[in-house]
Predict the structure.
Amino acid sequence: MPNLRKIVIYVLAFVVVLWAANWFGKRAKPAYAKWRLTQVLTKIEPWPATTNYSTHAWKQLTKAARVLQKTEPELAGSVLSEYLEKYAGQPAQLAVEHGKVFLLLRMVFDITDEHIESSASAGQRSGSGLDAIQSVTWPIRWYDGKPVLVSGYPSIPLFRQPVADEYNALRYRYKYRDLSKVKF
């Protein structure tokens, strides 16, 4: 019978370890996702004043877009807001970070001119602060899967609403972009 007792103890210990791992995993996952998204946001290269965005910059932006797509949507919106709030007391750096997040959102969502035309015909608007300039696809155009900047960083506000609201508006209106098809 000692072998049966050992088996029962081992099974109970295994169940406790599984329960503890599950409990810890549920609490650690959002913290890790938040940390991971914040890390990739800091590595995005700023939106330049010209249309010259390096291949390395596009790769970093695509990497950040992949991380954002894998993050729970509610958490993603709050992380984007918190990230920008860190720079509230530094207007010049806040503008740089706004540009990075703006490009990121245009990389994350599959916004094409066809989507814009169908939304416009249905009477919908993007909610973006740039409707007056061009379309919500601006400033990234896609040519055979390759992203191209069509404009340098503008001197106007990029968001007409809080970034979490912008993210949610895009999230409910457009699908995620298939980033496996992006070419450099």
About this structure: Residues 115-133 have pLDDT under 50 and may be disordered.
